[in-house]
Design a protein that fits this description.
The protein is mostly helical. The chain contains 3 helices and no strands. The chain has helices at 2-29, 34-40, 56-85. Helix 1 (2-29) packs antiparallel against helix 3. The mean pLDDT is 82. It comes from Alkalibacillus filiformis. The chain crosses the membrane at residues 5-29, 49-72. This is Phage shock protein PspC (Stress-responsive transcriptional regulator).
Length: 88
Amino acid sequence: MKKFFLFGISFVVIFATFQVLSGMILTWMHTPNVSEAWSMSGSLPQETVIVGGFSLVSLGMILASAVIAYIISSKIMRLNNNKAELPS
């Protein structure tokens, strides 16, 4: 059970880190066209509808997070087992 919690916590932390970093990179790379946005603002609807699907990039981040979390949790558990085996 301890191994499951360690994996879960490390997965959530790594996945959140990947999401924040990818958001920062996308924001850094985006160059808005203000004049075009201003001219289009009159014809836009007043309600905001968020549309989007699941992409392969998201799947890649999930898989990378899971692999890294598994590696971290297995190394920590191995370190704990080695400490328990050492004579005091």
